[in-house]
Amino acid sequence: SSSASVKVPLNSIVFLGINSGRSALSKSEVRLALSNAVNRKSICDGAFAGRARPATTPFNPDWAPVVELKGFKSGENIDAAVAQLELAGYNNKSTGKNILSLELLVSKGNSFREATAELVKSQFSKAGIKLTIVKDSFGNTIKRIKSGDFDLYIGEVLLPYNMSLGSFLSKRGKASYGINLNGDTASDYLKYLNGDLTLQEFTDTFTADIPYIPLCWRDGMAAYNRSL
Asked: Which helix (H) or strand (E) holds 141?
């Protein structure tokens, strides 16, 4: 064939939105447990058929300043997830009490996101978290997110090329629903923008506080003619 395709890295992040207004999810230990239970690499390989890169920080891995940044692991750490849940009073293995049960909202008709939801459910179950997937129309999903009627949702946001996280961490941000905008991450982000914190210091705050869970950066596909 004279045509071929090439992967084009997009500045588009797929993430788990978290409603920090829910009592369980208001605890950073629980949010950290969820992040530790996720295998970002298997989501890229499975749900996105290799057309995505693991999101190990809130920033695109192709952005030059990110190369040295330390963030999340691309695989899961189930032991750490279980330990964090126990710290928060969940999953007492000996009694089988206090299982953490959550709902994951996903809009119908996006096969990538639906596949991601199934993978997240099976990953969470390894840490003893019971996840119920709720599929709804795109319109209803947006309504529920905007009204705070959710535990978790799968979202995707195209970040601007200056890597601003305003979509998540500012009041009018289109992905700020459920995020505590008075929390550590939002306040440290302002300090970072003002030059009072390094990128690594901000990322350290983010990976301890977990206002949302970055999963992966999507790749687009561009077709071209081999004769070019």
From this structure: helix 138-146
